Amino acid sequence: MKKSRIISLVLASALLAGVLAACTPTPPPAQPAQPAPAATGQAAPTEQVPAAQATSEAPLRGLRLATGTEPGAIAPARHGALIPAFMNELTHSYLFRVDTETLEPVPDMVESWTAISDTLFEFTILPGIMFHNGEEVTAYDVVASLFYVQNYPYSRAQHASIYNAEVVDRYTLRIDTGTPNAMLLNDLAHQANATMPRSLIDAGHDFTADPVGNGPFIFDEWSSGDFLNFVRFDNYFNQERMPQLAYTHWRIIPEGASRTIALEAGEIDFIIDVPFPDIARLEANPDIEVHMITGTAFNFLIVNNDLPYFDNRYVRMAIDMAIDKEAAVLASVDGFGIPLWQNTPPVFLGSSAVGARHFDPDYARELLAREGVDPANINMEILASSEEARRRGEVIQANLADIGITVTIAMVDHATYLNLTQFGNYEAGLGNFIAFNLIQFLRATSHIDFIDAQNRGRIYNQELSDLIDLAIATIDTDARTAVLEEASRVANEHVGKIPMHQAILARAFNSDFVLPELSAAGFMSLNVAYWAE
Amino acid sequence: MWKYVVRRFIGLIPILLGTMFIVFMVLHLSPSDPAAFALGEDASPEAIWEWNESRGLNDPVLIQYARYVAMVFWWGDFGTSFRNNVDVSGEIMARFPHTIRLGLVALSAALILALPIGILAAVKKNTWIDNASMFVALIGISIPVFWLGLILVLYLFWLGRWHPWSPGRDWPSFILPGITLGAGMLGAMIRTTRSSILEVMKQDYIKMAQAKGLTKSNVMRKYAIHNAFLPILTGFSTHLGAFITSIILAENIFAWPGIGRLMTQGIAARDYPMVLGCLFMFIFFYAIINIVVDIARTYLDPQVRTYYKLGN
To answer: Do B265 and A156 lie within an 8 Å CB cutoff?
Structure first.
């Protein structure tokens, strides 16, 4: 009996101890501190002091952001995802950067550049650009990095334009594209071709653990599953775009409603991915500003062009014309999208609506009848990998039922969706593609060479592929735009995939915060953002 | 007695091997390629093949399983994450204290509340106290964790602008995930406690004690609660499985940096080593707690104690 009492007492004590022990607070993360650059024996060209400190104003504030997705890796060229690409924009500067207004590349680290021939380009980088470890950026670092990143397959398309690179002198390098390639400058503005210190590359430095770069912020800390910190780099080379934030603190909050409430409660200052149902409420809040812009993410219904019926472009056209895109946008993203009838994202230069269609179920029926296709024989299983896609699929299901086509919806997780659609083991699927320019979009989603890769619709159109190749090889912007317009027309008439909507990007943040730049691709240039107070 | 304890711990090995085998097969039979996911949509078939080869994923699944088991049980190594190349053991150890803390808070609070409520409900059977207790229990059992978590987050903020949010760093941050996680266990344990007490109260020795003139509180304290403790303990170990499942959901809702969330991320990215490592921890701790409960039962139950004292 005594033993039992002792055990009961021990169990009760353990319960109480559990509560007390579990509630013991863990220390908060250390306030990010500016690390001192390593001594290299070479002084920085000028003494960089934060503007606010130089004028004896209040110390710079930091920014606390929330995102739903934790990156797998944040080393440049080691991922193909958007959130880590936003972080690369903090830690690295590239030879060129994408202008937020035009989405065209503009010089960043590059002081000047010339085209020696259609395939050979010479770039001179600015002197005095410093890496976070205190070393100066030279042409040797750039060339070493261009070769180094080719070891990683995550961004094969962005490496394809660089056939060879060589150092001319300390600040000058040449890049050979092999064949004429209009994508070179775009590729040099991509995180896949970021510059890292040659000394660290040679030493086998682990850039995934410590992504040393030359961007406006230094990587400080990553607490797995919780947060990432980046602190201001005082020796950032670009005075005009010097960061006005002491740090950026990225919190990982997977649940959308929790992110919204964290912003409303003032626990964070900025939401990257704003849940659409919350936008109206956030807009009504005077302490919060919601910034919206038409994004580059193109949402579509892919149909497997290899399969009977779907290999007939008139059947695909009938499917396209039978779908009420506006209803689909309303059902899936609460109306925060632009219904699309053309097969290229309208935000890009060279995109054209010529040959695009419109909502006309009667004509869709007529097309099927003209082709001798009995819609009752078409059974389409649509893969959906998110709730948003499922809702879109339900609208499609109802619309296609009106013209006699039977649709079923299969929910799969994203990894399964990617696997099934990549190799053509599916009938139809709801997906999207985020591109930075029209060539990238067309090449990935519609070129013959990308079947069994990102051309998930298995679109086989030689004329379209030739036009894409011609656009890549056309260096002159006006001539290239004309080629792309023609390619857009062919894509529209071929209807390889069924366009659904262009996404609208939303960023919500504290109304005292000023975000001067937000590109359609989602990049925020946080180094030029600041607190208004 | 020691024989029993050793036997139980040895019995843990086939349980771990069996469950890991099932999970391993399910992961490998799912129609997706971790290489394609890890390397991105641009990766060439050659790069995918090399990536799979370097991780032994081109080998037959049974060979992969044997290799994994040897690695885990011989070297104590859970491998390297497919997603971010970090050491799985290190990542799990970094996250596990967060899960343990949240689990302990929720579990302790649920048990501290459930036991007296359950006893009170049994004592005051068919009164409003009993009905109210059963209503609370029903709510706790019925409400899905993911729904309760979201509702708490939304309504507490809208009602009182109250939103404690620093997962694991201060005690208010434990409140909402603790309630969400503990609700199911609270409901289940109230019902178990009540029914166990009521069952014991029907026994002859209770009637005998009452006939002898012992007060109601004395009967309850000396005989009923003590004897009801065994089925309560058994009930607790039964409900533990659902509780552990709830941890995974609660961690995702409240951005709790524990291994439940780590596992979810691993599943989404087809990160086999991370998923298996996290599951191993869940299964291991579930089994360990069950063993501890069973050992406690043998101490508390005179019949079992005597059985083992006799050398069985």
So the answer is: no
Could you report the per-residue pLDDT of A478-533, keeping only the tens digit for each?
999 999 999 999 999 999 999 999 999 999 999 999 999 999 889 999 999 999 97
Q: Which residues on chain B are in Cβ contact (under 8 Å) with A224? A: 86, 91, 94-95, 257, 262
For residue B253, give Cα distances in angstroms to A9, A346, B169.
35, 37, 17
Encoded tokens for B33: 């390629």
Instruction: List pLDDT tens digits, range B78-103.
Output: 999 988 788 999 999 999 999 999 99
Put simply, the answer to whether B300 touches A28 (Cβ < 8 Å) is: no
Pick from A1, A5, A11, A15 the residue to mutate for testing the B interface (most B CBs within 10 Å): A15
Phi, psi of A65 (to 5 degrees): -110, 155
Q: Measured between beta carbons, which residues in chain A are less than 8 angstroms from residue B153?
A: 255, 257-258, 261
Pick the closest to residue A154 from A40, A95, A38, A73 (CA basis).
Answer: A73
| pTM, to two decimals | 0.81
The whole-angstrom distance between B109's CA and the closest CA on chain A is: 7
Helix, strand, or coil (residue A524): coil
Query: By CA distance, what is A440's nearest residue in B?
Result: B42
* Closest residue on chain A to B91 (Cα): A224
* Residue B287 to residue B293: CA distance in whole angstroms: 10
> What are the residue ranges of helices labelled H in chain B?
2-29, 34-39, 45-54, 61-75, 88-123, 128-142, 145-160, 175-201, 204-211, 216-219, 225-253, 259-268, 272-300, 302-309
